[in-house]
Amino acid sequence: MADKLLVVKDLKTSFFTHVGEVQAVRGVSFDLSAGEALGIVGESGSGKSVTSLSLMKLLQYPGVIKEGQILFEGNDLVGKTEKEMRKVRGNDIAMIFQDPMTSLNPVYTIGNQIIEAILEHQNVTKDQARQKAIKMLELVGIPSPESRVDNYPHEFSGGMRQRAMIAIALSCEPKLLIADEPTTALDVTIQAQILELMKDLKEKINTSIILITHDLGVVADLCSRIIVMYGGLIMEEGTANQVFYEPKHPYTMGLLKSIPKLHKKEKERLIPIDGTPPDLVKPPTGCPFYARCEYAMRICQEQIPPYFSANAGHRAMCWRMHPEAPINENYSKVSNKGVNHV
Fold first, then answer.
1. Which residues contact 210 (CB under 8 A, 6 or more apart)?
2. Of the candidates 117, 172, 236, 248, which lies 20 to 30 Å from 166 by C-alpha distance?
3. Residues 210 and 328 grouped into a single domain
4. How far is residue 47 CA from its own chain's centroid?
5. DSSP letters along 170-218, please?
6. What pLDDT digit, counting tens, does each position of 293-338 carry?
7. Residues 229 and 46 sit within 8 Å (Cβ to Cβ)
8. Does one domain contain both 276 and 311?
9. pLDDT one-digit tens code per residue, 96-122
């Protein structure tokens, strides 16, 4: 554990609403090494963003971390006060949010917002902070940073605003960068530029990255390891190659089948995952994917499966992986050869 930058143990986060307790995250455990890029994927409502907000302790009422540990460099963040967390946020752990227009303050210049972050955490003068702000804008590829530093958010394009958000996040050289759907509001060309930028910055400054997205294609190039979430739980975890080419959980298989592929025939329909996500006010007693799973067995409805290990670093929460599970040829074919090869 000593070489792990982040260790999350049995994290449970709920929202106590007028309709009952929404169990958004129901026992998530994972770790992250220094310099590693980890992707967390899953459809809307799977618990990805709540997990990231829990890591930063940015949950707003009625959200509460009920149980678990968030060990950052060995220190448990769950027990820290708001004052203590302010020293961590932006300095050790930074976050890029989904929509830069709502994250940036429209009445302050881009430069002022970067300078504010630097002055909060570093012992420098305002002039030194301004010079660093210019360097950060240059680092993220903003043209003419000396003049652009005095622009307001509305004077930037969508892609430039997202670059400015990355500049703010990286201004204090954090050890961990959490990116929550950083390319959702951008067109495909700008998406590729932002992802290439994050990949380049990771190599330059060795910042660990947690990339949260619903798009498996987005994590393929940037992340070495992938977590697949559904119903507030981790369904599968492994390297990018393991998850893409040897998926073990039927939910992962369903996500991969739904991705458009270049070799598909014209007008050939995509294969959606039928059904809807579970109600997390009353989560199912068994596997949360049971009702939508084409490989489901009776035990899947009755008991949440434990994690089964496929090979080193590859685990999945599926009863089909049990040594005594009945053989299903379709499941075996996909799990051994991958969706793209079937």
1. 32, 37, 38, 39, 40, 52, 55, 176, 177, 178, 179
2. 236
3. no
4. 10
5. HTT--SEEEEESTTTTS-HHHHHHHHHHHHHHHHHH--EEEEEES-HHH
6. 999 999 999 999 999 999 889 999 999 999 999 999 889 888 887 6
7. yes
8. yes
9. 887 777 789 999 999 999 999 999 888
- Residue 60 and residue 78 share a domain: yes
**DSSP label at residue 312:** T
Least confident piece of the model among 41-50, 67-76, 177-186, 295-304: 177-186
225 touches 243 (CB < 8 A) = no
Question: CA geometry: angle at 53 spanning 123 and 256, to 5°?
Answer: 125
Residues 84 and 213 in one domain: yes
Nearest of 192, 157, 174 to residue 87 by alpha carbon: 174
The full DSSP string for 107-143 is TS-HHHHHHHHHHHHS---HHHHHHHHHHHHHHTT-S
Please give the Cα distance from 160 to 52 (Å, whole number).
24
Chain centroid offset of residue 151 CA:
30
Angle at 134 between CA 126 and CA 154, to 5 degrees: 100
| 308 beta partners | 316
The number of distinct structural domains making up the chain is: 2
Domain end marker among 191, 223, 255: 223
**Residues 190, 52 within the same domain:** yes
The token pair that represents 282 in the structure block: 């009353």
**Residue-number span of the structural domain to which 36 is assigned:** 4-223
Distance, in Å, from the CA atom of 291 to the CA atom of 251, rounded to the nearest integer, reads 11
Identify the CA nearest to 37 among candidates 163, 173, 203: 203
Residue 166 CA to residue 177 CA, distance in Å, equals 9
DSSP 142-162: -SSHHHHTT--GGGS-HHHHH
Residue with tokens 């932002």: 194
Indicate whether 254 and 190 sit together in one domain: no
189 and 98 assigned to the same domain: yes
CA distances from 291 to 233, 280, 336 (A): 16, 14, 24
The b/e string for 37-61 (b: 16+ C-beta within 10 A; e otherwise) is bbbbbbbebbbbbbbbbbbbbebee
